[in-house]
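Morning F.,

Quick status update on the modeling queue. The single chain you submitted on Monday has been processed. Sequence for confirmation:
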Amino acid sequence: MKPAVLIASGILLAAFAPALLSAPAQAKTMKECAAQWQEMKASGQTAGMTYRGFSKQCMSGEAAAAPPPPPAEPAAKPSGGRAAMVARLRACAADWKTAKAEGHTAGQKWPQFWSACNKRKKAEGM
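Structure tokens below.
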């Protein structure tokens, strides 16, 4: 019985080995993929893709994804709310340093001082 199992497994191995070991017909070598990457990089067609991701895709034989079309208009500028918040934060930080150096924090820690200062600056229109 053992010789029959060995013969059957040998036949199966011989039948499926070429399929397991061969690469897809359209797969490229590393040098070909590197040359294609350099061409795409020079023409600005990488579209945020990394070389590592591109090389995996290229060598596996998958078709390269088409880069997304460039945006028609530049994106809208961020709202002024964030800029105003940063300005208040910096102004309150300067106030905090001054008050702390003079000993006028009234026992407050930074979070409490920031909360009160932020409300005050918002009321002032900052």
